[in-house]
Specification:
The structure holds 2 protein chains of 2 kinds. In chain A, about 55% of the residues lie in helices and about 0% in strands. The two termini of chain A are about 30 Å apart. Chain B is about 70% helix and about 0% strand. In chain B, helix 3 crosses helix 4 and helix 7 packs antiparallel against helix 9. The chains are: A mainly alpha, B mainly alpha.
Chain lengths: ~325, ~200
């Protein structure tokens, strides 16, 4: 979906003359060599004709209306005063200063237990965060009902939360790996070798995926060692947890993803997987699930998974 | 800046390209500076009547707006001359279609910078398809796509359409186009056009 959207806006920029000349020339070569791409570009052109038609109709209607009443005089809709811009800049400066002071004070705290990833994976009333040692740079995972269990590897711990089997079946049936899940993971690793994600990917690709193996491999990918791969590793880890039936850990990761600065399509995707991960414990997470469903299916919403969310909503009502 | 009598051509172009000032500028040109009247007079001079002139003037303004926004105006003449060239070209084209062969179009007519006759024909031929597609995507999507085509910034689209932020506006524009595409792809006219190409 992300790739589709990126290509869509690239074609738009190309057709509207917004690509730099070198990029436009390179893109033209791509179009010449790829009949599918050429057809997609033609489709865009045709749609542009449709939109030009729409705008022409709209302007004609306006011209007819102007004969009776002219558009609002300009003075009424004058541009925003420049001072407003200054105020925004001042506010931004104050916010940045506050953040700097906060970070400085936080760093000065004696505990030293800084954890790089999810600070609050899910609402505090429903989930607890795993204790993290300074040496363990893997992201903390939500540990429901495991207070006081120390630092035993999460991989070997059974999930103590009672899940509803019917909802597990529904969530599993609706869960599909994203289309770009395996894209290019085998290439572009360090020094041209395999990527650090390759072992996990192999575990996913087995006829019966070995999620535990994938989890073990993915947890080794730390932001410090593999900054370029960490985000993708987290996404894969979320799916591995889900496949392994560890929905709470999966939910923690997908929720963290929803807070990151992702593209709209990626954000929607993360929300959808968060919803699926919360579903098996619907009785416990009803508020979160209902709230997500409500946002995703709202009238006028353009959520990528609106149709799927409607299905979930309908099944939950049954 | 709000007195159209002192606008330069460059200012007019920039105002038409700015979604905030586009409508007011077109209105000012058409009525306050009476480009409409000039187009009607031209059509009358070329054998049309008042009503022909009124319709043609509106058509010419629509084409003028489209061309200016899409950088088709090459600056070979003053903007008003260009507008009247479009009107003239369209009127002659109209006559030619009514009486083929009687009035060959002059090759060096500046109005040829206007959309090609092929484009006009295409839009007319598919007008029903486009109408249906637009009806299907709904008013909200139409508004979003119009703002998008006017190069409105995503932040502005988000504000105008009550969307959360620029990302949501971008996504909305994308989704609306995909909905439109689904309709067009399902329509045989699209396939016909592809085959022709």
């Amino acid at each position: 979906m992300k790739n589709d959207e990126q290509l869509f806006f690239k074609i738009e920029d190309y057709l509207r003359g917004k690509l730099p000349p070198e990029e436009a020339a390179a893109f033209e070569q791509e179009i010449a060599a790829d009949p599918d791409l050429a057809e997609t570009v033609e489709m865009h052109r045709f749609e542009h004709e449709g939109l030009a038609f729409m705008m022409a109709e709209d302007l004609r209607a306006k011209i007819r209306a102007w004969e009776k009443s002219p558009p609002v005089p300009e003075a009424v809709s004058s541009p925003r005063p420049k001072n407003q811009k200054i105020w925004w800049l001042l506010l931004l400066a104050v916010a940045l200063l506050s953040a700097t002071v906060f970070l400085f004070l936080r760093k000065s705290e004696p505990s030293g237990l800084m954890v790089p990833l999810p600070e609050a994976p899910l609402p505090a009333d429903t989930l607890l965060q795993a204790p993290a040692s300074p040496a363990d740079s893997s992201p903390p995972v939500a540990q429901e009902g495991r207070q006081g269990t120390g630092e035993q590897p999460a991989d070997t711990q059974p999930e103590p939360v009672p899940y509803r089997q019917d909802l597990i079946a529904m969530a599993t049936a609706m869960h599909e790996l994203p289309p770009d899940f395996f894209a290019d993971n085998q290439r572009n690793g360090t020094a041209g070798g395999k990527s650090p994600l390759a072992p996990a990917e192999e575990a996913f690709r087995l006829p019966t995926p070995d999620y535990k193996k994938a989890i073990a491999a993915l947890r080794k990918i730390t932001p410090a060692q593999h900054p370029a791969w960490h985000a993708k590793a987290q996404e894969m880890l979320g799916h591995a947890y889900f496949g392994d039936g560890r929905y709470k850990e999966a939910a923690a990761i997908f929720q963290e993803m929803t807070r990151q600065n992702l593209s709209p399509a990626q954000h929607d995707q993360a929300e959808w997987y968060l919803l699926l991960s919360l579903l098996p414990a619907y009785d416990r997470h009803q508020r979160e699930v209902d709230s997500l469903l409500s946002e995703m299916t709202a009238e006028g919403s353009f959520h990528e998974f609106k149709a799927e969310a409607l299905q979930v909503k309908s099944k939950l009502r049954q | 800046m709000t007195n159209p009598n002192i606008w330069t051509d460059r200012q007019i172009i920039s105002r038409i390209k700015d979604p905030d000032t586009r409508d007011k500028t077109l209105y000012a040109l058409f009525y306050q500076l009476d480009w409409r009247g000039a187009a009607i007079a031209l059509v009358r001079k070329l054998g049309g009547n008042e009503q022909d002139g009124e319709e043609l003037a509106s058509d010419a303004l629509v084409a003028f707006d489209h061309n200016v926004r899409n950088d088709r105006f090459q600056g070979k003449s003053a903007l008003k001359t260009y507008f009247l060239s479009i009107a003239r070209y369209r009127w002659l084209n109209h006559l030619r279609r009514q009486r083929p062969g009687l009035l060959p179009l002059a090759e060096n007519l500046e109005g040829r910078e206007d959309e090609s006759a092929e484009m006009i024909f295409l839009r007319e031929e598919y007008s029903e398809v486009f109408r249906s597609a637009l009806a299907m995507i709904g008013d909200r999507c139409q508004k979003i796509l119009e703002l998008y085509m006017l190069d409105t910034r995503m932040e502005e689209i988000a504000r105008a359409m009550n969307l959360a932020n620029a990302d949501m506006a971008k996504k909305a524009a994308y989704r609306c186009r995909m909905t439109m595409r689904e309709f067009l792809q399902a329509h045989p006219a699209w396939l016909d056009r592809l085959r022709e190409d």
